[in-house]
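Example S7 (structure tokens).
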């Protein structure tokens, strides 16, 4: 799985498909932190933006290869499921990098580090939204959705539903509790939302692997 992830990341970077979502995310971060203010609402806005960006990155990373190349990768990886999990792992690496950028941005712009407790809340919120984005993006990859236009439209729709639908995914509630801060949201609530995001990622990835295997 690690070898597939390294290959997928290298192929994705060579394709330069990462540039549009990366530039978009950096632009939003620049807007969010243009003025000084409470750090937790800023983390909430950054985490909310990470959701569609993670969906976008995941979709691009999985679909960088054409159909024939993807089949070769699956054979070398030992099966479609291994290839899918390897590329999902690569998407997770991308989300971790973006999370680090989002958390360091206010520290660099304001020239001081947030409180450790606030930083922990920010990490949790970004991971919740990032993992959910990877899960939703994985549902739209080939061979489940063959045409790129349809895949992008489906991914955009899922992102919108996740952001505005309360209790559909953990994203909406996560953004809500950070937008209302201070006070700082309870750790137990964030951990439950994080567990929900992890369960979504595992469940939807396994489901996508099974359905994709049937369509090949």
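Recovered sequence:
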């Amino acid at each position: 799985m690690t070898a597939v992830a390294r290959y997928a990341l290298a192929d994705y970077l060579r394709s330069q498909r990462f540039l549009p979502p990366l530039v978009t995310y950096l632009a939003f971060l620049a807007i969010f932190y243009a003025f000084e203010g409470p750090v937790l609402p800023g983390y909430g806005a950054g985490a909310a933006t990470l959701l569609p960006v993670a969906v976008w990155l995941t979709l691009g990373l999985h679909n960088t290869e054409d159909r024939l190349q993807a089949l070769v990768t699956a054979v070398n990886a030992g099966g479609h499921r291994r290839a899918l999990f390897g590329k999902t792992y690569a998407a997770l690496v991308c989300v971790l990098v973006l999370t680090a950028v989002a958390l360091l941005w206010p520290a660099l712009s304001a020239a001081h580090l947030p409180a450790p407790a606030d930083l922990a809340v920010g990490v949790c919120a970004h991971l919740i939204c990032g993992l959910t984005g990877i899960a939703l993006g994985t549902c739209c990859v080939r061979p489940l959705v063959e045409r790129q236009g349809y895949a992008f439209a489906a991914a955009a729709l899922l992102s919108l539903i996740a952001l505005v639908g309360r209790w559909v995914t953990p994203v909406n509630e996560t953004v809500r509790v950070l937008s209302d801060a201070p006070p700082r949201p309870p750790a137990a609530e964030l951990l439950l939302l994080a567990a929900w995001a992890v369960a979504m990622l595992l469940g939807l990835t396994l489901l996508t692997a099974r359905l994709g295997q049937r369509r090949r």
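Notes on this example. Residues 80-110 form the longest helix (31 residues).
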